[in-house]
Amino acid sequence: MLPNGARVGRYVVDAKVGAHGGVEVYRGHDPQLGRAVAVKLMPGTSERFHREARATALLNHPHIVATLDVFDHNGRLCIVRAVTVTVVSCLTGLASAASAFVK
Predict the structure, then answer these.
(1) Does residue 17 lie within any of the structural domains?
(2) 76: which residues sit within 8 A by CB, 6+ positions away?
(3) How far is it, in rounded angstroms, from Cα 44 to Cα 15?
(4) Which CATH number characterizes residue 95's domain?
(5) Backbone torsion region of residue 81, taken as left when φ is above 0, otherwise alpha when ψ lies between -120 and 50, otherwise beta
(6) CA separation for the pair 5, 11 (Å, rounded)
(7) Which domain holds residue 30?
(8) Is residue 37 within 8 Å of residue 26, measured between CB atoms?
(9) Counted domains in the chain
(10) Residues 74, 44, 11, 54: what is their CA dihedral angle, to the nearest 10 degrees?
């Protein structure tokens, strides 16, 4: 688990949002561009996870969360995705869940 304020690449972790099957998801932000992001740390650097990241990075649709960055972080694949209140609300069906990503 990463502490609040930890750096993952150029991104800063604000809080852990969830975990499942070795995958950890954190609310974070990009200090260079001033935007909220979801930082997803995968277990290892499996080719399957690289394919997932490449595939989602090619897609552009209002109902698909944009992949902003992919890189290795201490032996784990890190996938950074765009976050908006609308995206979080649509994915969870709960407006209160959006508060996990909005300060």
Answers:
(1) yes
(2) 41, 42, 43, 44, 45
(3) 21
(4) 3.30.200.20
(5) beta
(6) 9
(7) 7-100
(8) no
(9) 1
(10) 130
Residues facing residue 29 across a β-bridge? 12, 36
What are residue 2's phi and psi, to 5 degrees? -90, 140
Tokens at residue 74, please? 């201490």
Distances (CA, A) of 35 to 19, 56, 102: 22, 19, 10
Query: How far apart (Å, rounded) are the C-alpha atoms in residues 76 and 2?
Result: 13
pTM of the model: 0.77
User: For 52-91, what is each residue's pLDDT tens digit?
Assistant: 888 888 888 877 888 999 999 999 999 999 886 655 555 4
Q: Is residue 1 part of a domain?
A: no
